[in-house]
Write a structure and sequence with these properties.
The protein is an all-alpha fold. The chain folds into two domains: 71 residues, Orthogonal Bundle (Multidrug-efflux Transporter Regulator, Chain: A, Domain 2); 189 residues, no CATH class. It contains 15 helices and three strands. Strands 1-3-2 form a three-stranded antiparallel beta sheet. A hairpin with a 5-residue loop joins strand 2 and strand 3.
């Protein structure tokens, strides 16, 4: 035909790496029809058949169906449009696979039961609205009665997980554990008591978060002592305890106990409330979900100062 070199189906198979059977199938499907036939009736293909078959093979490897490939080859639909549609579909599949991988990884790590597997799978699949409802319910129970407090908005925002639209597996796994934690009634009750007590301690015109004020004071005062190897019961620890007591008295303002022992007892109670491993875990998971830097655990400093306070109260 006009001097064009035609190729047998066997020649095409050698050039493309496809089997003869596959090429016949694509020919019979009308995707890569033969250009001509030999005098003996064998199919013959033009030079463009190699490129067409390689395109078909690539599209098939990308998961595109034969009906769509036929439309592309027949120029009924553009390749760009097909590529965009399938890329978007793959994005959905990738998100689903990430969810499944995160659930299975968490199940394997925990040695979870079938019931726990069901719960974790359900939490991973929650819609954005369902996640928000769960979070709102948690924050409402923690800050019940405190919504009019000046620090409520800032503190609640700092405790709100916001899973991104396309989370990575670590964020999905962190969300699952965090969602389990915020449904724990004991944890909710513990945070609620802490929020109520800390709100009572707050000066009325103080718009900063007291947990942060107290926590940062403990971190600043106690971390250097721990790093220096100072024991809570040593005389060297006394100025640190005194400074923290004075800081707490300033927070309490007019409601601060005049008796140093009572002040220390009240401070120890507040710090022990804060030293809940579940709270530490919540903040760590929150950082992963929100993409924040990992928080430094306050637990060693809280434990140190509580021991120091109790030692001094016992020896006064």
């Amino acid at each position: 035909m006009n001097g064009e070199t035609l190729h047998s189906i066997g020649d095409l198979a050698r050039r493309t790496g496809l089997t003869v059977k596959a090429i016949r199938f694509y020919a019979d499907s009308g995707i890569v029809p033969p250009t001509d036939r030999s005098t003996a009736g064998y199919r013959l293909y033009g030079a463009d058949a190699v490129a067409r078959l390689e395109l078909v093979r690539t599209l098939r490897e990308l998961g595109i169906g034969l009906a769509t490939i036929r439309q592309v080859m027949g120029q009924e639909v553009s390749l760009a449009r097909v590529a965009q549609t399938h890329a978007e579909a793959l994005d959905v599949q990738i998100r689903v696979l990430r969810q499944r991988r995160a659930v299975l990884t968490a199940v394997a790590r925990r040695g979870a039961t079938p019931r726990e597997l069901d719960d974790m799978h359900r939490l991973a699949q929650l819609s954005e609205a369902e996640r928000q409802h769960l979070i709102d319910d948690f924050l409402a129970s923690v800050f019940d009665g405190l919504h009019e407090h000046p620090a409520f908005t800032g503190v609640s925002r700092s405790l709100t997980p916001e899973l991104p639209d396309d989370p990575d597996p670590a964020q999905i796994e962190a969300w699952i554990e965090l969602a389990e934690l915020i449904q724990n009634h004991e944890f909710r009750a513990s945070l609620h008591r802490m929020a109520q007590d800390l709100a009572v301690d707050r000066a009325p015109d103080d718009t900063n978060g007291l947990p942060r004020i107290l926590a940062e004071a403990v971190r600043a005062q106690v971390t250097p002592a721990i790093e220096s190897g100072i024991e809570p019961s040593s005389p060297t620890a006394t100025p640190i305890v005194t400074a923290l007591g004075a800081h707490y008295a300033r927070i309490l303002a007019a409601t601060a106990p005049q008796d140093p022992e009572e002040l220390h007892r009240r401070l120890a109670c507040r710090l022990e409330q804060m030293n809940d491993p579940r709270r530490d875990r919540y903040l760590s998971l929150l950082a992963v979900v929100n993409g924040w830097p990992a928080p430094e655990s306050l637990a060693p400093a809280l434990a140190w100062v509580c021991e120091a306070l109790h030692f001094r109260m016992a020896h006064q």
